[in-house]
Write a structure and sequence with these properties.
- The protein has 7 helices and 2 strands; from the N terminus they run E-H-H-H-E-H-H-H-H.
- A two-stranded parallel sheet has the order 1-2.
- By secondary structure, it is mainly α.
- Its EC number is 2.8.2.-.
- Belongs to the sulfotransferase 1 family. Belongs to the WSCD family.
- InterPro entries: P-loop_NTPase, Sialate-O-sulfotransferase, Sulfotransferase_dom.
- Keywords: Transferase.
- This is Sulfotransferase.
Length: about 160
């Protein structure tokens, strides 16, 4: 269906927390302690975590021409990642626009502070499931010669 695509992969743990916050409290809010402790959280993890893996695996399987970008690498090295993306898209971006992107890197739609639940919301069973998805996606990336999952995602 698509000639080419850019697959943006984010750490699934951070992705799950961010999406649950968005689902419960909108783009700028945070889920309440009660929401984290409700049955909604484990149900969310059991449906969204497999989707994280299947989404990446599907694009790797069916994408004809694919660029894999890791979200955290985009945050760490915005300019070099934007240059890679521009080269992949075969477009030219002026240095002025790149610097503008860098100076507005944080944007306006960011949750204030790193408010997280006062406890680890991931149970050992959740971690085991998510870690297996991380390893599956990493293996698929490796087998297709894409940049592998960042070390910070991998189970310890």
């Amino acid at each position: 269906m698509f000639d080419s695509a850019i697959l943006l992969i984010r750490n699934p743990y951070r992705s799950l927390i961010a999406e649950f916050n968005r689902k419960c409290a909108g783009h700028l809010g945070h889920a309440t302690e009660a929401q984290w402790e409700s049955k909604e959280w484990p149900e969310f993890v059991s449906s969204y975590a497999p989707w994280w893996a299947s989404h990446a695996l599907s694009w790797m399987k069916f994408g004809r021409r694919l660029l894999v970008v890791h979200y955290e690498e985009l945050q760490r090295a915005l300019l070099s990642q934007l240059r890679l993306i521009a080269a992949f898209l075969n477009i030219t971006i002026s240095e002025e626009r790149l610097l503008c992107s860098q100076s507005n890197q944080d944007g306006y739609f960011k949750r204030p502070g790193a408010q997280r639940p006062s406890f680890d919301p991931f149970t050992p069973d959740m971690r085991q499931m998510i870690d297996s998805f991380i390893l599956t996606v990493d293996l698929a990336l490796q087998s297709r010669n894409f940049s592998r999952i960042p070390q910070e995602y991998l189970p310890r």
